[in-house]
Design brief:
Residues 312-893, 901-1124 form the Exportin-5 C-terminal domain. This protein has 56 helices and 2 strands. A hairpin with a 5-residue loop joins strand 1 and strand 2 (755-757).
């Protein structure tokens, strides 16, 4: 009993207090009290722990085993609180008594291992660990021996010792919750004793596993689990030698335990941590023992299925075991072919067979877990040439044919994978998102595997494609019944569709690589053409399957370059698909699947025209005539399809290599667009916001279900803009200078000798540019109040973000299931929103591409700057953020190379906040490349992050090693204009305190000092310097809790203070306003060293930065969760590991081995 010298009166007081607390807790007043009384009782308990002087005796009485678990837990919490917050002020005698009482609780204060509550064990271990963190090893040198002695008391005590050792490692190594010196002392002491600790843990594990296997007592099993968990906490960080000692005894035991059902999961986790270790290759070499017969036998045996159905624990074990094999493969790839001379394991075939078993497992998750390792094996320079891997590559291809088929939805029961998916995924949408990523992984691995056996891979793909073209269509039970026109067609989950989709993806991955990995004379051209003919001859009216057919046509098209006479057949197939309809002349809206077919065909033609323009050139007249025929019918093609065909023709026309001929063609192609765009009617519409709104019908009331008569106007307007964009984007001069000169594309040379080209589309585009700028100006003016009120009630939200944009901003996935089935019915509002959105985007795309396409013809337009300012930058104050973001994003890409109501309001608030964050980020993205060399923008943040992860206290000085960036030529031009440059500086420093850590880090590490140091030598106003420095401190207040931002901001503050403090006394006034610095002499000392560079007290860079960090520590903000947390103070103890300072001695002074001077003794000359 805790008496501690107290009088009997004090003891009675503690007993009475304990009784009152016991009554409160047992009556569950604290937990079941009415809401009005609870807030008074909980603070009472907290106040008791804080202020009562009888906490220890009360806690011990409440923790007695005669009490209930809730009461005991509260009593132990009191003891933990005393150790954490009162330990430093306790007399030494009380510390010793408390320690002895705590050890007594470990030995006799618990129930048996199977009866004791887990939360009691947890708090008991925390109490001991808190004392260890404060007293070991200096004041408690026998702690490890006492722990070892406790294990002889019983299983419950052994488990508690394991929990103590585990929590100690977590606090010291993983979470690093101690001051640096204490953490270092404990870690080094643990390291020194690690050999004995591991021997102790292995002995405990061996003992209790043997007992469990002999008597099947659950108590021994529980100890074994606790010991394995403790080992897992140490294996991650101890020296690899401790893991591989004694001929890898630990690894051997872990492999043996894989066959023990109750211990296999924990054993696999330990094994995984051990095999995943990084470090020197020679230290990892012993891990190859796991490829031996015994280890591989136990791993293979553990992977065998157990019974029917999915047992959750065993499934989790299989996941860990799969990870073990993946980590083992990673180690193999690192060691084989390295300097440590590891041979290819003899049991490589056993390993790959075990690994393939996971690749063919019904669980889609397990299948996906193997992909990265397969890719590493197939890319390995030595292993990829091994016969075992070569043979396994073929098996992998066969397995992939099954794995690419999208089956296993949680809501279904049509596959063995479904049951596993119900454990791994919450919904079909989650599964679908996962499977898309999984399929992309498989595609990458297949492409890597094709480097090994390209012809065999092509043969497998060919067999699969031939099978699909001959197999009947199976629509399954899930048919598309959304409209009468679609009856009897497949849905996206129909068996035939998923098979076609998988085959197409596989073929695409294989054929794309065969032309790179096989010499031309060995290419299977005849077989490729045979497959292409089979695809071209395959006729189907099912849009989903036809989409796969078109993809196969595109994939196999490279074979046509070896047989040109097949080109017309390919083009006829694609042109027929452009006008595809399920039912001819149907007035119902087309389904998404039908629209996708038409777009797919257009995209295929564009892709072929882009990649093989010279090859397709002989068929240009045929294509042009066919396009004219299609254009003759207004309703045959929609606007986008027409523009796509025009783009393809422009791409092929680039191969004319004759300026006049191509110019004449473009004039003919764009004649209708030019006439319509430059007409007087269109000019009036584009220059007047009121007429524009009337023209597109946004000021009209329209009832749903009725036709909107102005839809044709919007369509024609969009067609003009799409056409201009397509021509500007695609029309080019020949890449070869000689061909360009011969064709009349070169008009001169720049002073540095670079050729000056002219674009055949310049004349037409320049004629259209004034109305385009007018459209941009009019569009911006639509957000003025007088124009906003012109919108009708139907279209009052016409300028709002469309749902696709909202989802993109919020990072929400797009719905991916059943998107092909329903017809595309859109409301009038949705159509109007889409019109404004795409029209606005395309205008800026044209403007962004015009400079690159038209070159000097664009930049020499008279008054170009004034025209752009008078259109692009008009009415920006009234424009919503999402429109501004579009403008910035596009310019950057081109030049920078109630509940329901409340829920809607919350979503809108989230949307607006994220939009502002993205907008401000892109403002910085736009200004930075203009001013600073782009390569620094891309590379430096990575370097900074890596350096900061390795050390927080990196020295900061302005030196060549400090990559602060350099101004571009445009940046230097900005420097000459004070108003522009100061605006850039203001944006950069203001962004430090924006609610965006990415912006903060980028600005602090690259932008701010790069811009500021250019004007440091000038006459900056003291107010400006003060504002800049205060902005950095505000950034620390906002983002200082993030280590990466803290380091960058501290670095920036140090740079500014050391470079500006000598000239600006005002910075000292700013520093004195930082909390905890006003009355400190540390600032005086720092300033003295800074202002007197020759002073003998000048510190090194590391110490200088550490001192500066302490000065500004009061400005560093804390995370909300940390702001009201009571601080735990752990005092440092006398260090055990101080490095002795080397004695200063004369270099010529004699030593035990003789003096340096003796080397030159004449006596040695006789040797």
């Amino acid at each position: 009993m805790w008496i501690g010298g107290c009088s009997r009166c004090c003891f009675l007081k503690s007993t009475i207090i304990s009784f009152l607390l016991l009554t409160l807790i047992e009556c569950e007043v604290i937990f079941l009290t009415p809401h009005s009384e609870g807030p008074h009782l909980l603070p009472f308990c907290e106040e008791f722990k804080e202020k009562c002087s009888f906490c220890v005796p009360c806690g011990l009485q409440l923790a007695d085993t005669t009490q209930t678990a809730v009461v005991r837990h509260f009593g132990l919490q009191i003891l933990e609180h005393v150790i954490k917050f009162r330990w430093n002020n306790m007399p030494q005698q009380e510390k010793v008594q408390l320690k002895n009482c705590a050890m007594g609780l470990l030995s006799t204060g618990t129930y048996s291992i199977l009866e004791e509550e887990s939360h009691i064990k947890d708090v008991l271990s925390r109490i001991i660990v808190e004392m260890i963190k404060r007293e070991w090893p200096q004041h408690w040198p026998d702690m490890l021996k006492e722990m070892e002695a406790l294990t002889s008391v019983g299983e419950a005590q052994t488990e508690l010792v394991m929990l103590i050792l585990l929590r100690l490692a977590e606090d010291v190594i993983t979470f690093r919750t101690l001051p640096t010196q204490r953490r270092r002392d404990i870690q080094q002491t643990l390291t020194q004793n690690m050999e004995s600790i591991f021997s102790f843990l292995l002995a405990i594990l061996q003992l209790h596993v043997d007992e469990y296997q002999t008597f099947l007592f659950c108590a021994h099993c529980r100890v074994g689990v606790a010991t394995l968990n403790t080992l897992a906490g140490y294996i991650d960080w101890v020296a690899l030698a401790n893991i591989t000692n004694d001929n890898c005894r630990l690894l051997e035991m872990l492999c043996l335990l894989l066959s023990e059902t109750e211990l296999q999961l924990e054993a696999a986790e330990c094994l995984l941590i051990a095999i995943s270790r990084k470090g020197k290759l020679e230290d990892r070499k012993p891990l190859m023992v796991l490829f031996d017969d015994v280890a591989m036998h136990y791993i293979l045996s553990a992977a065998q299925p157990v019974g029917a159905g999915v047992v959750e624990r065993h499934y989790t074990f299989l996941k860990r075991l799969c990870q073990v094999l993946c980590a083992l493969g990673s180690q193999l790839c690192s060691l084989v072919g390295s300097d440590v001379e590891v041979e290819v394991p003899v049991n490589l075939s056993k390993y790959t067979e075990a690994f393939l078993a996971f690749t063919t497992h019904p669980s889609q998750f397990l299948r996906s877990s193997t992909q990265i390792t397969w890719g590493t094996l197939f890319r390995h320079e030595i292993l990829s040439k091994d016969p075992v891997i070569i043979q396994m590559t073929i098996k992998y291809f066969r397995a992939t044919m099954t794995n690419l088929v999208k089956t296993g939805f949680p809501s279904s029961n049509d596959s063995p994978s479904c049951e596993y998916s119900r454990h791994d995924f919450d919904s079909d949408e989650d599964f679908n998102s996962f499977f898309n990523s999984f399929r992309a992984q498989q595609g990458e691995v297949v492409r890597n595997a094709c480097r090994i056996v390209p012809l065999e891979a092509f043969q497998i793909a060919a067999e699969w494609l031939q099978y699909q073209t001959s197999a009947p269509i199976d629509i399954g039970t899930t048919v598309c019944t959304c409209s009468k026109t679609a009856e009897g067609l497949c849905s996206i989950l129909s068996p035939s569709v998923v098979q076609w989709d998988a085959m197409t993806f596989f073929t695409e991955s294989v054929v794309g690589k065969i032309f790179k990995n096989v010499e031309d004379e060995k290419l299977p051209v005849d077989q490729g053409i045979e497959l292409l003919q089979a695809v071209l001859n395959y006729n189907t009216q099912d849009p989903l399957i036809l989409s796969c057919v078109l993809t196969n046509v595109s994939v196999l098209f490279p074979f046509v370059t070896h047989r040109p006479h097949f080109l017309p057949q390919v083009l006829y197939k694609l042109f027929a698909s452009i006008t595809f309809e399920v039912v001819e002349e149907s007035k119902a809206p087309r389904t998404r699947a039908v629209k996708n077919i038409r777009r797919h065909a257009c995209s295929s033609i564009i892709k072929m025209s882009r990649d093989y323009p010279q090859f397709i050139l002989p068929c240009f007249d045929m294509m042009y005539n066919h396009v004219k025929k299609l254009f003759s019918s207004e309703a045959l093609l929609n606007m986008l399809e027409k523009c796509a065909l025009m783009e393809a023709l422009v791409l092929i026309s680039n191969q004319f290599k004759d300026y006049n001929k191509q110019k004449h063609f473009l004039e003919e192609l764009m004649a209708t667009v030019v006439a319509r765009w430059t007409s007087d009617e269109m000019r009036r519409v584009l220059w007047d916001p009121a007429l524009f709104l009337d023209f597109v019908g946004a000021d009209q009331l329209v009832a749903e279900g009725t036709e909107h008569t102005t839809g044709i106007n919007r369509s024609r307007l969009s067609f003009c803009v799409y056409t201009i964009l397509g021509v500007v984007k695609r029309a080019r001069w020949p890449a070869d200078l000689e061909e360009a000169k011969a064709g009349g594309f070169v008009v001169g040379y720049s002073p540095n000798g670079a050729p000056i080209y002219r674009n055949p589309c310049s004349a037409q585009v320049l004629a259209l540019l004034p109305n385009l700028l007018a459209l941009i100006r009019t569009h911006n003016s639509l957000f003025l109040p007088e124009n906003m009120c012109r919108l009708s009630e139907t279209f009052s939200k016409a300028y709002d973000m469309i749902e696709v944009e909202k989802n993109m901003v919020l990072g929400l996935p797009q719905p991916a299931l059943d998107i092909y089935d329903p017809p595309v019915y859109k409301t009038h509002l949705e159509r109007m929103q889409g019109f404004f959105c795409t029209l606005y985007d395309n205008c800026y795309h044209i403007l962004g591409k015009a400079g690159l396409s038209l070159q000097q013809d664009f930049y020499t337009i008279e008054g170009l700057a004034e025209q752009i300012v008078g259109s692009v930058f008009v009415s920006l104050d009234n424009m919503p953020d999402h429109r501004l973001r579009t403008m910035l994003h596009i310019l950057l890409s081109h030049y920078g190379e109630e509940e329901e109501d409340e829920s809607c309001e919350e979503n809108q608030e989230m949307l607006e906040e994220q939009l502002v964050r993205l907008l401000t980020r892109e403002v910085l993205d736009l200004s930075t490349p203009f001013s600073i060399f782009p390569f620094l923008v891309m590379s430096y943040p990575v370097c900074v992050e890596e350096e900061m992860m390795s050390t927080e206290s990196q020295a900061v000085t302005v030196s060549p090693a400090q990559p602060t960036g350099e101004l571009t030529e445009l940046g230097k031009c900005f420097l000459k204009h004070e108003d522009i440059y100061m605006t850039l500086l203001t944006i950069s420093f203001t962004s430090l305190s924006w609610k965006d850590t990415s912006n903060c880090h980028r600005s602090a590490s690259i932008v701010c000092w790069t811009l500021l140091r250019q004007v440091v030598g000038g006459n900056l106003l003291p107010e400006a310097v003060t504002w800049f420095y205060t902005s950095v401190l505000k950034g620390l207040q906002m983002h200082g809790q993030h280590e990466i931002c803290n380091s960058a901001l501290t670095q920036l503050a140090l740079l500014m203070y050391e470079n500006l403090r000598p000239r600006y006394m005002e910075l000292r006034a700013v520093m004195t306003q930082i909390p905890n610095i006003t009355h400190s002499s540390a600032l005086d000392q720092y300033d003295q060293r800074l202002l007197e560079p020759s002073s003998a007290q000048r510190l090194g860079e590391k110490k200088r930065k550490d001192q500066f960090k302490k000065l500004i520590a009061g400005a560093v903000g804390k995370a909300l969760a940390q702001q009201f947390k009571k601080e735990v103070h752990i005092r440092n103890l006398p260090s055990l590991f101080k490095k002795p300072k080397p004695e200063k001695r004369d270099i010529l002074e004699t030593s035990e081995s003789g003096a340096l001077a003796a080397l030159f003794s004449p006596v040695l000359d006789d040797i």
